[in-house]
Amino acid sequence: MDSQYRRSSYGYFDDNAREYVITRPDTPTPWINYIGQEEYFGIVSNTGGGYSFYRDPRYRRITRYRYHSIPIDQPGRYIYIRDAETGEYWSATWQPVKKPLDFYECRHGLGYTKIRSRYRDIETEVTYFVPLKQTFEVWWFKIRNLRDRETDLQLFTYVEFCFWDALDDMTNFQRNLNIAEVEVEDNVIYHKTGYRERRNHFAFFASSEPIVGFDTDKEVFIGLYRGYENPIVVEEGVSRNSIVYGGHPIGSHQIRLRLKPGEEKEIVFILGYAENPPEEKFIAPNIINKTRVKQLLREWLNPDRVKQAFEELKKFWDDTLSYLHVETPDEDINRIVNIWNQYQIFITFHLARSASGYETGIARGIGFRDSNQDILGAVHLQPLWSKIRERIIDLASIQFPDGGTYHQFQPITKRGNREIGGGFNDDPLWLVASTIAYIKETGDFSILFEKAPYDNTPGTEEPLYEHLKKAVMYIDRNRGPHGLPLIGHADWNDCLNLNVMSTNPDESFQTAPDRTDGRTAESIFIACQFVWAVKELAEVAERIGRKEDAEYFRKLVNDMIERVKKYGWDGEWFLRAYDAFGRKIGSKENEEGRIYIEPQGMCIMAGIGLDDGKAIKALDSVKKYLATEHGIILHWPPYTKYYVHLGEISSYPPGHKENASIFCHPNAWIIIAEAIAGRSEQALDYYKRLNPSAREAISHIHRTEPYVYAQTIAGPASPRFGMARNSWLTGTASWMFVAITQWILGVRPAYDGLMIDPRIPKEWSGFKMVRRFRNATYVIEVKNEEHVNMGVKQIIVDGQPIEGNIVPAFNDGKVHHVVVIMGKKE
Question: Glycosyl hydrolase 94 catalytic domain: which residues (predicted)?
Answer without folding.
Answer: 316-746
